[in-house]
Amino acid sequence: MTTPTQEGTDGSGTLEIVPLGGLGEFGMNMMAVSWGETTIVIDAGVMFAEPELPGVDLIIPDLSYLESRAGQVRALVLTHGHEDHIGAAPYVVPLVDGPVYGTPLTLALVEPKLAGHGIDAADRLVPIRPRDRVVVGDFEIEFLRVTHSIPDCVALAVHTPVGTIVHTGDFKIDQTPLDGEHTDLHRFAELGSAGVLALFADSTNIERPGFTGSEIEVVGAFEEIFTSSTGRLIVAAFSSSLYRMQILVDLAAQFDRKVAFLGRGMMENSQTAMRLGHLRVPDGLLIRDSDVANWPAQDVLCITTGSQGEPLAALSRIAIDDHRHVKLGPEDTVVLSARAIPGNEKAIGRVMNHLSRRGVRLIHEGLKKVHVSGHGSAEELKLVLSLVRPRYFVPIHGEYRQLAQHARVVAQATAGAPAPTEVLLLEDGDILHLDADGARRAGRAPAGRVLIDGTRVGEVGDEVLRDRRHLSADGLLVPVVAISKQTGEVEGVPEIIARGVVIDPDDEGLLAEAARVLSDVVAAASVEERTDQGLIAERIRVEVRRYFRKRTGRRPLVLPVIMEI
Amino acid sequence: MTTPTQEGTDGSGTLEIVPLGGLGEFGMNMMAVSWGETTIVIDAGVMFAEPELPGVDLIIPDLSYLESRAGQVRALVLTHGHEDHIGAAPYVVPLVDGPVYGTPLTLALVEPKLAGHGIDAADRLVPIRPRDRVVVGDFEIEFLRVTHSIPDCVALAVHTPVGTIVHTGDFKIDQTPLDGEHTDLHRFAELGSAGVLALFADSTNIERPGFTGSEIEVVGAFEEIFTSSTGRLIVAAFSSSLYRMQILVDLAAQFDRKVAFLGRGMMENSQTAMRLGHLRVPDGLLIRDSDVANWPAQDVLCITTGSQGEPLAALSRIAIDDHRHVKLGPEDTVVLSARAIPGNEKAIGRVMNHLSRRGVRLIHEGLKKVHVSGHGSAEELKLVLSLVRPRYFVPIHGEYRQLAQHARVVAQATAGAPAPTEVLLLEDGDILHLDADGARRAGRAPAGRVLIDGTRVGEVGDEVLRDRRHLSADGLLVPVVAISKQTGEVEGVPEIIARGVVIDPDDEGLLAEAARVLSDVVAAASVEERTDQGLIAERIRVEVRRYFRKRTGRRPLVLPVIMEI
Questions:
Q1: pTM of the model
Q2: Which member of A209, A356, A476 has the closest CB to residue B404?
Q3: What angle separates helix B219-228 from helix B242-254, to the nearest 10 degrees?
């Protein structure tokens, strides 16, 4: 099996593929593909820590494998601009001697991340378009348009000396894409006809039967909501959901509402999208968040961050009546226009309870079709499989059970074919070798999760890359606060337990002072905030950590314990 | 407005209703209804701590309000046998001077709980049937059949001197109930015609549109599963889902599979249900768990606990290949036949990942219709509302957002009626007064959550009722273990941080020995168990607590910290 565009001359070599993230968890997607002295990296994603997982902000893949190939990593190739595909770029780009390929939107979203880490890579960011091809060593990389929940996404066909591999990125088959950019089924079919060695395909929604449906399917529900809303309308969504934003902006224009973006991610991404033409906003429609209060309630739409219940996001502040510019009342409507990422249900539920206390009308995916997934369901995955009809198949992007289910579905779907596809169920760190003799697992590369003890929004350039070993060396702090569930009052004196935190003998008062910081944080919080374990714990974590970092330069793991009395 | 069966003579009094649990959370449902010197308690439920909420096992409502009425609490009235309605009975019954009313199944499920706490209440357990009426002081309590996910459920009509109140319990309107026992819509209608003062209705599924559907809707999916299963078939469900068990037993008989119940709750409840005729099992069909391995895989159905990812349940042990009698392989099928209780998604996901590693075919609600809720959806709730057409409406059984949504739905549904229903949005501890002048909130009673630091399955009679104040007085232990994510090896020496744990000066070695216990626990665990934070944390919690209790008689709060390295 060869490809029509084979560049390499040494057909006797071995292609080595190592998934470094995303095979065994959702997020931190990354894969290394090597031939001889050339390695390319596909995607560089983060995984978000859960709102209630204290102690860390971000998680990225272990980069040891790339470090071991120093000088040979020739390109980073990005499929699209979601955090779980580009968020680790600031940590990966320094290990790459070569360009960063991506579509204009993807690169526009990566660029400020790199700048925030003091990396000036402007001349290495190489924009590509669908059907473009670029050559890196013995690889020729071809980009194929796919549809997803963010615009300007691509899949990859990597033509190698031993054959073509196809990497779907994240995708669904949206038959009515808002921007008219259809999934390039024609090219997938051509590649399949020419012969594909291996397909690596998204497994996120393999457990959903049928087809996922088009992004425009939310329009009907939102039309109803706009029609029936008599007060303010607040819609929370992922800040990368630019199609969703366009739908909302268009409806706002139609229903005579001004639009305000709330939360840093919304503000930044909407600006970027407008600059690149992915978000078209009529003149005069936008207002600033600080102007929301100056407009009649029924004339305003706010599009906000916080759909995952993140304790410090705009929606969470609004929910406890603690947002500077937006106060809600019984006439207002709040829409959660996003799925709950598993693990976030409790945090989202708490935000919904707080919003209900404001008396608002609350709408979510369970009540109306205000969200459509960006990932293809089982039938879409089978369709791409049957177009590409690869010799080998590797499920990617999922926890183990999704990968296993995808493997099962593919084995069943191809069982009757003249040349059945062989399924390889890999996990992060598994080394896959492909050569003239076929495909096989060939040992393990270092892989795992590296925790980023980042700073919060607004404090750029102060992130620290480290692993649990370092966390453990910096020690552990357990702030303990007892709060009356009934009154929200603090009972007793808040304390901080320290373990392994090296304290300068001259600084005996450190822990006592930290305990005072803790008391102040709790005292400054509202009763509603204090009686919400998730909110108050996050507030304590951030403030205690900030205090310790400032005073000692150390970053202990901070695990608040809130005792309800 | 009066009722046809009014017993009281003093029409000038005030009916006092205090929800003590279930209005602001799912679980621990309990409500006190008082007239003069007589108080009755409706339900006495627990709330389960989440699998990953360390430190407590059960949560029950604060009982201070009932304690303040000592000698006047004349009856406990149970609507059905679910834990969130009867689980707190051992703590409530001692406060009741009078009978415990419930259907035969409900009482059969309560009785062993009471016995386990050394309460011999056999002569106070008074079985009732639908349409029965009992008199307690000035109250006449009438029982109405409703359908739900467990058999033998009732709603209540409490006829009081100021009018009739209706309490739905938990219900849906199953039009094809497996046991032929239909919801008594006729009597709801009669009560509505005669005039109902207040309706208290289940809000659990208010966010779901339409009708919930009948329990028998799962039969089709299970028929497919039985037909296509070539190995063992393992179905995890709530141990109270007796209808589900009957469906599975019938299919097992039809498809020539023996049936084994796994897990204590399954074994006990199936025995009780068979004794009372709620579960009919053909002779020779049942086998013991210890016999599972002696039958060919394709001849066995196991019905097991663990559908919520509980770390110590049978399914969790099977998933990590650590069950004494049941080992799974690629030919086997596992079905999760239950919804995920919010907050349990991560734990369930982990069990599913472990099961996938065993290579089994894994089926859950997202893939096939293997579960139907027992709670009515919006249209069912509206139907009962329009039959009962109460003067006042109080949503019960839900977090604040469900109560608020139910209030909104009812206000809309009755807005056009000649005499619109007035909606009262109460929370736990709100005192509601109803008299000739109408209904109003009249202050607050003590309410909240009391934590039960129980013992595990099998250690009866050693549960401790206490609140966080006591927990805090017994101190806090934080076992810290660093485990390599890659290898599952323990790194460094596990330690235990103690705060506020009073240690006898003669017992200096206590903490050091506890740390050894901790090391032993971790060493004895399998790699798969060690690299699953939820499983190893729960194992550590249980063992460290047991050690401290045995050595010191104290029960500190134990919060394990697992550092992945």
A1: 0.86
A2: A356
A3: 40
Contacts of A565 in chain B (CB under 8 A): 467-469, 472
Residue A358 with chain B: CB contacts under 8 Å:
none
Predicted local distance difference test score (pLDDT) of residue B501: 67
pLDDT at A265: 93
Which residue has 């070569």 as its token pair?
A98
Q: Residue B468 has what pLDDT?
A: 41
Q: Bigger pLDDT: A450 or B291?
A: B291
Cα distance between residue B124 and residue B134, in whole Å: 14
Instruction: Using 50 as the pLDDT threshold, list the residues of chain A that sit under it.
Output: 1-10, 51-54, 455-471
Q: Count Cβ–Cβ pairs < 8 Å, chain A vs chain B.
A: 123
**Complete DSSP assignment for A120-189:** --GGGEEE--TT-EEEETTEEEEEEEEB-SSSSEEEEEEEETTEEEEE--S-B--SS-TTS----HHHHH
Domains and CATH numbers, chain B: 15-210+374-452 (3.60.15.10), 215-363 (3.40.50.10710), 475-564 (3.10.20.580)
Nearest chain B CA: its distance from A90 CA (Å): 22
Q: Please return the burial class of B386, using the count of CB atoms within 10 Å of its CB with bins 0-12, 13-18 and 19+.
A: middle
DSSP readout, A57-93?
SEEEE--HHHHTTTTTEEEEE-----HHHHTTHHHHG
If phi > 0 it is left, if psi is from -120 to 50 it is alpha, else beta; for residue A129 that is beta
pLDDT in tens, B157-197: 999 999 999 999 999 999 999 999 999 999 999 999 999 99
Residue A533 CB neighbour total at 10 angstroms: 19
The per-residue pLDDT of chain B, averaged, comes to 89
- Give contacts of A331 with chain B, Cβ < 8 Å: none
User: Which one has a higher pLDDT value, B294 or B536?
Assistant: B294
At B456-498, the pLDDT tens digits run 333 333 444 444 444 455 677 888 887 877 777 887 778 887 7
Helices (H), B390-447: 400-414
Short-list B170, B207, B157, CA closest to B3: B157
Of B278, B262, B342, B228, the residue nearest B106 (C-alpha): B278
The whole-angstrom distance between B100's CA and the closest CA on chain A is: 30
Cross-chain CB nearest to A346 (options B343, B403, B469): B343
Q: Which two tokens stand for residue B461?
A: 């009679």
